[in-house]
């Protein structure tokens, strides 16, 4: 299937193998009390018909959607942003953060438009099929699944750091990773985002409070924990810095991950009670998350300077770090839960699509669901155990998969939606098509260059001995 040609047929209709027949969902479900009753759900292009004998996949309100978006977006990445400012400098670091944030926000908007036009789309794998046929489906499916599960693996690593910090390395780090994996499996097995949204509120509050505690702690302390505790010390604040190409691209890769929640948004919109509220939820999420990022990153870096820790919780001393990680623990588990639940449900939907087992509480339904969740969380466990380098892992995932999915593919999605008439369209359409081609090229560049920088970062961490060994027992709370 050519990449710049939409399928013929009403509303971009897809081949029968790729879609389910669907009824039009009323845009007024939020105001319809009947829509709130479990089981009263119209036939859906992704989940089929729900008759009450199974989970209600379409019951997330717009505020809960915004919270889910925020927590999917704000999590692991924010802990590395202050160190990114030190690498790039405050001015270039803030500019690049705003730039990748703008690109990501536009990609999220395009994702919502694409889902509205093609309601049968549930993931970037479906998008890949529409853009480039079966090869596109395979490439996007692999990138999507690895992106989501490796982020979950980064979350498991962060939880092990939290456990080590809180307990002062009470036991082997490998044990903490196993405990984090088991708890994540239990939470991610919750079947609908509506129910996960309830724990997401707790995760949202815990993350905000914990980061405020660290920011205040660094601000009121005489000096950061990593700085010399006696005598003169120099923050070495970099308004502009001169990093190597690899260092700069690795840092930008971390920024891409911090705003790279786009791959989860197809699934989130699919479970909205009123999908027409998507843009409202997106606007609330992005305004709050980007403001939060800039405020936390710049303030923490200003007070800690070159002695900023990554993750940032280590910047204010042992006591504050233990308190902050204790407060943030629910948020870390929620991040792992979402990034395990979403890819697991994608596999689950594809296995049972078109079958009554997708929406009925049958034996096959439950066995398939638990197997999907278990497979995803076990892969994330392997990632967390085999690559115990927080900054490098975050940057690698953001560059390799985040730039590809959130910038490159979303740019092609816009061209698929609106670019077919570029030859006969006006100057504005031609200019918009050209801009999206440049965005796609920028995404490709960030993917290659950022991966290079992140690999160098991981290699340097292992060569210097500043990290723990794979499946090791050593304390990782002070080495990453």
Description:
- With 480 residues, this protein is an all-alpha fold.
- It has one domain: Orthogonal Bundle (Hydantoin permease), CATH 1.10.4160.
- 64% of the residues lie in helices and 1% in strands.
- A hairpin with a 3-residue loop joins strand 1 and strand 2.
- Helix 2 crosses helix 9 and helix 4 runs antiparallel to helix 12.
- The longest helix has 44 residues.
- The relative contact order is 0.18.
- The N terminus is likely disordered.
- Belongs to the amino acid/polyamine transporter 2 family.
- It comes from Filobasidium floriforme.
- Keywords: Membrane, Transmembrane, Transmembrane helix.
Order of helices and strands: EEHHHHHHHHHHHHH
Quote the average pLDDT.
Answer: 85
CATH class category name: Mainly Alpha
CATH topology: Hydantoin permease
- Alpha-carbon distance between the two ends: 45 Å
Taking pLDDT < 50 over at least 5 consecutive residues as the criterion, the unreliable ranges are: 1-41
Number of strands: 2
Largest sheet properties: 2 strands, antiparallel
Number of domains: 1
Count of helix runs: 13
Based on the coordinates given, report the CATH architecture: Orthogonal Bundle
**Oligomeric state, counting identical vs distinct chains:** single chain
Q: Output the structural class.
A: mainly alpha
Q: Beta-strand level of the residues, as a percent range?
A: under 5%
Radius of gyration: 22 Å
Q: Give the strand order of the largest sheet, numbering strands 1, 2, ... along the chain.
A: 1-2
Helix content: 55-70%
Globally, the shape reads globular
Tell me the CATH superfamily.
Hydantoin permease
